[in-house]
Amino acid sequence: MGLQGVDRGLLAGIAVFRWAAWALMATLAVLSRDDLVRPWVATASLGAALAVTAGTTALLRSRPHLMVDPAVVTVELVVGGWLFVADGWAYGGSPMGVAAPPPLGSVWTVAGVLAMAVACGARWGALAGAALGAANAAGTYIAGHPPLSDQALGLASTAASHILAGAGMGYAASRIGSAKREVAETRARDAVALTLHDGVLQTLAIIARRIDTAPDLARLARNQERELREFLFGTAEVVGHGGGDLGSRLRAAAAIYEDRYGGSATVVAVDEDLAAIGASLGVDALAGAVGEALANAGRHGGGGAVTVCAESNEDEVFCSVTDRGPGFDPAAVQEGHGLSRSVRGKLDEVGGRVEIDARVGGGVEVRLWAPRRSVRNGAERNGAERVGA
Questions:
Q1: Structural domain of 152
Q2: Using an 8 Å Cβ cutoff, are 224 and 211 in contact?
Q3: Which of 26-40, 123-137, 199-213 has the lowest mean pLDDT?
Q4: What is the pTM of this model?
């Protein structure tokens, strides 16, 4: 997994755990010293565990990348296995009916499993736990009394706890690594966005609007601006799953218009203001109505240049879609199905309103309003309606 993908604080926490577990192990060995048949084995085991504990702590301060080196972790696991096996030699078994003293490695060995999980992932952490569980069974077999079968439940419990510790730590470490990488990528993307927002993006937008004699170049500029925005602000994936703020949704609708009808659609809005208007029922209605208005402009307005404007105040959010097509006479033409149902219908659901300003030869402007209460609380209201249904 590598140190760069893991929080160093996680490794520091394991180091603290080692010291606490070693202190507990040493205390238990002192308290049960009268039961020791081979005190030198216990002393050697404590010394080996202390060397690993001190050595890994020193690495954490001087060369932390070695903390997740498989070779270093393997050494710790070998010492942990030795603690379990040597336990049977140190105490020499307990007579029947006499409670056995606590094993030397019951707690300290977990640190090696955690380290392996951080170094190599959940699978290897679980395998390390299983290996130490087997070493514990071997130590119990060496002790000989009470019989191995009488301690099956305790052995299984120790093995299961080590396996679960390895699997759980491996999963947690992987999630922490993923989160750190995502944060780093977001920060890098934000830094690039701050640099490009007032430069490249606006330059591309100006080029797209002002090149009337080279439509292919204008479209290229619009496509590059769109792709750059999607990379910087992550709008494509979010909008594709039905989410995103109002600005992202409007830019996505404009992109669909350009792809479908071949015209140019310019979104005029303050990104910071619209980014604060997150996904909700009101945003869905506004974005959907804008998309329908753009479709009408493409079908009836000649598929030329279209401008989408958006702004908001304390009471409502306003959007407009203006095309420079042939227009129509509202008094002489009955409002079509697309406007009456698709545009007006979407906003009627959230208490919004629609105005159509059209004239022959003067294009069409569709003005849309949605109350801020529907934009702010629409998602909660939509959830309540689903529960009620």
A1: 3-180
A2: no
A3: 199-213
A4: 0.50
